[in-house]
Design a protein that fits this description.
CATH architecture: 2-Layer Sandwich
Oligomer: single chain
Mean pLDDT: 93
Shape: globular
Strand order of the largest sheet: 8-3-4-7-6-5-12
Helix content: 25-40%
Distance between the termini: 51 Å
Strand content: 15-25%
Structural class: alpha+beta
Length: 235
Amino acid sequence: MAEKPVSIGDKIEIRYNSKRWELLKKLREKAISIMENFSKYGVQTIVHGSLARGDVKKSSDVDVFIPYIVSSFLVEHALEGIKTDFLSREIVQATPQYAAKGYIYLEDNVSVSFPMVNLRRLENEFYYFGGALHLEDLEQGKRVPGVDKRLILIEPTEYGHLETPVIGNEANTAKILGVSLDIVNQRIRVLMKRDKVGRTGVYLKRVLERDENFEQVLKKIADKDSVVRNRMRMK
């Protein structure tokens, strides 16, 4: 049966069909296998977005995120238990103000990412704005509320989820998610601007060669780029 939205007051209820539950199970199993490898090395990880909320679709990504600075050598070593031949490795800095992050792509829609400089408060809250879960929560089948790219608050239910617009509901959204009103307003500005002007390019994107090291490459970039260098110094 197709999923049919039902209005409940100012919310819309979406009841999942069996295909969506099966897809969620499959994607989560893939994430858990990656996160368990990191756990063996004492590295804490999270998943965020639709995988944490439950509202997955075929195009959903599995992005395992390490929410603090960790050696890229340790990251790659932990991943050897899953895959030794990575699809690609990249350093990405979305804007001059954002932290540079390392990305290791295992498959087209499966990646591990980690910050290469200290995350600021709003950068950390970004993940919980969209919904985030740790390995233990994922293994227990938990789902959490979060906001999708449409600026819709997704609240999991036994049968699927409820949807509520974030705009006009900012303070309550922050309370439900346990984040600051600052990150809610920031994401509204960013996503509304994206709707008007479209997605713009990132400030920095550098694909690494097979024999290159994340930290060494970022240092070489910072030596020549004051913007990257200054962001590395920010706390």
